[in-house]
Amino acid sequence: MLKSNKLSDKVFDYTNIILLGLIALTMLFPFYYMFAVSFATYEEFVKTDLLLFPKTWVLDAYEYILGSKEFIRSLGVTIYVTVVGTLVSLLLTAMMAYALSRNILGQKIYVFMVLFTFVFGAGMIPTYMVVQGTGLMDSLWALIIPGAISSFNLIVMREFFIGLPIDLTEAAIIDGANDLQIFSKIILPLSKPALAAFGLFYAVGIWNSYFTALLYLSDPAKWTVQVVLRQLVILNKSNLLDVGMQAGMDNPPPAETVGMAAILIATIPILIVYPFLQKHFAKGVMLGSVKE
Amino acid sequence: MKRFMSIALSSVLLAGSLAACSNNEKTSSGNKDGKMSITWFDGSWENPVPEPGNEAVKKLDEKFNIDFKPQYIPFDLYNDKLTVKMASGDIPDVIGTEGADTNYVKWAKQGAFLPLNDFVDKYENFKAIPQSVWDAVSIDGKIYGIPLFFPASGGKKPVIRQDWLDKLGLKMPTNYDELEKVAIAFATKDPDGNGKNDTVGLGLAKGIVYDPAYGAYWGNSWYHKNKDGQLIPGQISEGSKEKITALNDIYKAGGIDKDWAVKEYNEVFKDFNAGKVGIWYEQPGTEKGAQPNNLDLATLRKNAPEAKIAAIPAFQQPDGESGYVFGSGYYRIWMLSAKLKNDTKKVEKILEMMDYMAKYVPAAEQKADNEYFDWTMGGEGKGYNIVDGQTEKTDDYSKYAPLALFNEKLGGFAVGEKVMEDYEKQSKSPEAKEFNKIMYGMLSKSNFYISPVGRIHSDVYNNKMAELTEYASNELTKMIVGQRPISDWDKYVNEFLDKGGKEVIDDVNSLIEESKIEGEWKKAE
């Protein structure tokens, strides 16, 4: 950044820092609040309007969550689906993007078909029928395959591959490399920043998958952490207007302190992925922005 | 472009033929190892949700010699998945629903469900189902589902802080004037004695929940008649006007939370448990009165050790009656797929199972040596334990107990409303026992109004009433907070009628007349 000693510049800088700092705080605050509540006793939470610092710190909520087999199991399912899903998505997206970045037969048609799904989706029920018809129902692959390639990511990655110098490929061909070798030995290593960025997009997307899990998986043993989390946090209440509101069934979730602890535990794993990918991520955004 | 079109078309055709293939394969599902397979899709209140293939399913397989394939979704998410399943034609043998709602009527009329009229009188527990409940699940005289018992006099009822009444020297309110005085005193005279002005007289939440109607006359059920003798919805009745006027007075005097119109009702539960609310709601039920996130006497007493609650009896109405509104008397319905039309054996097997699971075991007979009870609850030590002569479900209840796959067993039609006595005995915590005793004490002495509207199915009502209810709730909210004067009442009624209220009233009344049912009072015994 350019340094300047002019007063007006300093004022501008400090105003910026304070303002952006405040905005950042509003985003961090919910996390802090959840943190504080998750360690408080339920009585104190109920009594205090805005609980910022519990008088007594207890681990009850965490004991409850970590003692819940369903929650731990669903966390395992989510980690598994996220790791496998991200790898599958990245591989398929990179392969297709690379192929479409070269002059192959029918390239335009394929690109058009991808763009078409970018604008028009089939909707929930036809997708459900496809998943059912292809036998993916009740399999964890139902969370991975139908959304394996995001057309947006594909298009952006294709642009990235087009930006790589063609000379590299040509040199490799002269050295006797085949297409697969060029892709795996030259293109992919050069694309690490892009892969990291898209990997993160995919991972977060799959980590948060909730409705697809509910829709395609009938065995609660396969439910992802988001579905189980919802049960812990949101009041399972009747859909019936009159019965539900005035006279029906509801199944209250455990105390809010437990809900907050559950949210934190379900968020932390995906959150700690960020710092590791951060440096690639920043590079990926910069890449190709300046022509040399 | 031409070439592109041909490729696109051929790929569509290919996809279509593939789909057709896989569809054909699936229709041959049926008997595996000579056993009848029964698919079952329902919502669940169990936590954790029962898993297919657990111990409970195996017990059912053995007992009924079937291959039971159930699937459960937490009830608040259930409708989303059910809609997709029904729309894609993936219809299981048995489908559950919470009530005879718009979708139930729509799907029944489209022929998705099997009429059960020829079957139901063969089963002992179904015989006890009262006509008003059969009416609720029937369309044009055809029974499309098996209703499950729910006490009609249960449901959310008002409770008041008796210790606050005593402290301020006030009496239990018996009409809206007295209610006003009590609610305002609760908010302004520091009933909790902490020297701070931090109490609320009457708990109220967004959308006027729970409706502070202390009797059928003031509620939203169809009780009043217009000058043509037609029944009208409560929202536009004289009773409603009286209630809204009183609420407006209380609001102006500070007796209702200033933020109530944007507050969710679970927030009010939180405030009540913190000892800040004087009048609020809860329903009787096992463990009710001592659950976090609901009314929780245990937490309340930690914050206000002297807290005592009482149930508010229904107010005396201008027409001489008094009583709360009777609920529908059922909760949840099981429908059978119309695809079973020619499979009478399977239909009978399914109904036999439902009938078997519907039998209620009174609290006094809930013992391990009661074979039926022990089996349905998953076996002593696995699905339940007997502690101090009382049944306690284990954490693994939904894994072992066949009953967890069917219903909450809130009682049975054969036992009827008396089941509420058992809630006290079945509750574990002393606070829940105390709460249920208080509630049953009030309810067993109360009269109840049975509305005829729950017993008919009007398409006009189903299409329009949700929107009208929301409109009424918005306008009435404005009146309570003083944004719209109550002198606008007649104008509001006309707006309601113009927005489709008139058509709903006409249709509902002609259907009621056709089926020759009337609103009636069920007197306390």
TrEMBL record, chain A:
Extract the Pfam families matched here.
Answer: BPD_transp_1 (PF00528)
Looking at the record, the residues that make up the ABC transmembrane type-1 domain are 75-277
Coiled-coil residues are none
* Membrane topology type: Multi-pass membrane protein
| Location of the protein in the cell | Cell membrane
Query: Where are the membrane-spanning stretches?
Result: 12-35, 77-100, 109-128, 140-157, 194-217, 258-277
InterPro entries on file: MetI-like, MetI-like_sf
Q: Which UniProt keywords apply?
A: Cell membrane, Membrane, Transmembrane, Transmembrane helix, Transport
The record's comment on protein family reads: Belongs to the binding-protein-dependent transport system permease family.
Q: What is this protein called?
A: ABC transporter permease protein YtcP
Q: What is the lineage of its organism?
A: Bacteria, Bacillati, Bacillota, Bacilli, Bacillales
TrEMBL record, chain B:
Q: Which PROSITE patterns match?
A: PROKAR_LIPOPROTEIN
PANTHER family documented for this protein = ARABINOSE-BINDING PROTEIN-RELATED (PTHR43649), POLYGALACTURONAN_RHAMNOGALACTURONAN-BINDING PROTEIN YTCQ (PTHR43649:SF33)
Please name the SUPFAM superfamilies in this protein's record. Answer: Periplasmic binding protein-like II (SSF53850)
Could you tell me which species this protein originates from? Answer: Neobacillus kokaensis
Q: Which InterPro entries match?
A: Bact_solute-bd_prot1 (IPR050490), SBP (IPR006059)
Q: Does the keyword Cell membrane apply?
A: yes
A Pfam family that the UniProt record links to this protein: SBP_bac_8
Q: What is the name listed in the Swiss-Prot or TrEMBL entry for this protein? A: Lipoprotein LipO
Signal peptide (from-to)? 1-20
Query: What keywords are assigned to this protein?
Result: Cell membrane, Lipoprotein, Membrane, Palmitate, Signal
Q: Which superkingdom?
A: Bacteria
